[in-house]
Amino acid sequence: MSTEAPPKFSSGIRLHITEPTKLPECQNHTVVKYIEENHTVVNHTDQIQKPWMIIIIVSGLMHGVLVFVVIGVINKVSLQNTVVGFIGSSVVLPCSSAKHDFKLEDINVHWRQNGRIHVYDIIKGKDSVADQDPQYKNRIKTFPEEYERRNFSIKLNNLTHADAGEFSCFITHSSHFKQETETVRLFINGV
Question: Which residues are in the Ig-like domain (predicted)?
């Protein structure tokens, strides 16, 4: 934890950002309070995240007036991981669902690189390469035995420099409107 004071705004108020735990007590300082819903998402490292947080900045008493400013809503379902691979080697790109109350036949998973390149699809619990980009043909290994545990990770073989970038795993449920997203940043080392 940093003991260094954060910079002041032009009004002279400091913005202290804390973890979403207890609300710190302080007078005439800015306090950040997180209000969270009861939804939780567990990623592949079993870190529990709260998907929706409203950040409210409560400014200290300024001339006898308590000022409330709502900053916004943050969707924390999207989690970003970093994976480093080497030219010619393989990496596993993690993706798992926190929702275990859906039938596998009701789940679709779409892997995309940089938001647009079709890497791999799992449709109604079955592997599909119908729309797969040619650069990934015969380079993706899946783990169907893990699908029942809602693990949709993929293994990318024979890495090239073109593979570097952001990979997103979109998990949708046919009877549910929310989409789960897990993002992995892939860095490639080597000649």
Answer: 88-185
Give the burial class of 119: count Cβ atoms within 10 A of its Cβ; 0-12 exposed, 13-18 middle, 19 or more buried: buried
Structure tokens at 31: 């306090």
Q: Alpha-carbon distance 29 to 13, whole Å?
A: 6
Burial 63-82 (b: 16+ CB within 10 A, else e): eeeeeeeeeeeeeebbbebe
Count of other CB atoms within 10 angstroms of residue 2: 5
Query: Are the beta carbons of 166 and 62 closer than 8 angstroms?
Result: no
Domain 79-189, classified CATH 2.60.40.10, yes or no: yes
**pTM (two decimals):** 0.58
pLDDT in tens, 64-93: 444 444 333 333 344 468 999 999 999 999
